[in-house]
Amino acid sequence: MGFVGRKLFTLQSIAKRALPQIQPARFAGHWNDDWKPGPYPKTEAERLAAAKRYGLIPEDYEPYPDDGMGYGDYPKLPIVSAESRDPFECYDYKGHRRNWGEPLHVDADIYGLDRIKHAHTDPVSPIRMGVWFFTAYIGFFVLTYLGEDFFDKEMKPQQFPHRGETHYTFESAE
């Protein structure tokens, strides 16, 4: 009886019983096949069904061209990077600035907060950035060059514990 009781409460047996309850929460209750795009819509009825599936009105729904890339009925969405979205909105996924169920761009993985900023413009032109960089670089170089003579003027003599004693030698100890 003691062996059976110990076996019931091992870490492995507890994990086996608890893991199926954790998995649906981890995958938000869906399987990968739920997000797989369907075949390219050939009729108007298929087009309307695909627009409804992705939560778009039929006027806004336009699938990618059927060129063999495998996008199927997935909608051709405009590029909106996470950086250009409102940072103060209450999103379901704050790290990606998106809500549950909203369709993503096909290349959404490269438009995250730590990746490409599609609509990003620098406040300063690259030429002006270069001018400021080289001005600072040359300015520090000139100050260093001019300051070499200024700091070397006052050197104190080297200090030894006792004057006249040899504290080391490079000759052999023979």
Can you give a write-up of this model?
34% of the residues lie in helices and 0% in strands. The protein is an all-alpha fold and 174 residues long. It has a domain at 36-76. It is elongated and about 105 Å long. It starts with a helix and ends in a 23-residue tail after the last helix. The relative contact order is 0.06. The mean pLDDT is 78.
What separation lies between the terminal Cα atoms? 83 Å
Helix content: 25-40%
Q: How many β-strand stretches?
A: 0
- Proportion of strand residues: under 5%
How much is the radius of gyration in Å? 35 Å
Low-confidence stretches: none
Pfam family, one: NDUF_B8
InterPro entries: NDUFB8
Protein name: NADH dehydrogenase (Ubiquinone) 1 beta subcomplex subunit 8, mitochondrial-like
GO cellular component, one term: mitochondrion
In short:
The chain crosses the membrane at residues 129-147. The chain has helices at 2-8, 11-26, 44-53, 126-151. The chain is mostly helical.
